[in-house]
Amino acid sequence: MALEIERKFLLANDSWRGAVVRSARMSQAYLGGERASVRVRIVGDQAFLNIKSREQGHTRQEFEYSIPLSDAEQIMAGLVLPGAIDKTRHYIEFQGNTWELDEFHGANQGLCVAEIELVAADQAFARPAWLGAEVTEQRRYYNNELSRRPFQQWSDEEKLGPC
Is 30 labeled as catalytic in the residue annotation? Predict the structure, then answer.
């Protein structure tokens, strides 16, 4: 079984921008599911089908498969739920770990979330100065939730941290 151990954080400031080693524009949409999140993602000329269990917290089952780009385009054109995600993923290397920082566009414009994947739930890691509050346990920051209730629909009180 494949496990994903991931922690999510807001940002304290935008000093992360100078540390980006590469970026990729992504679009993704969801096909639904009560017990699992099923998504199709397009990154440049590559496409993936991803199945992730819906447990809340830092550890979930995850399965990802490459699929033909034409299949992904067809799925996104007619089979997905409303609310596709449009974002740029920035990759940052910091003290032996790779951080993935998602800068959202469209209906989620103004939101940035930093993620780190770990090999163990209790793994220690260095925290960059730009890292803000942890939001791993807050479902509204999960991409599948953002597809249903985008950041632009949140109240001002719900919107924390700069992008």
Answer: yes
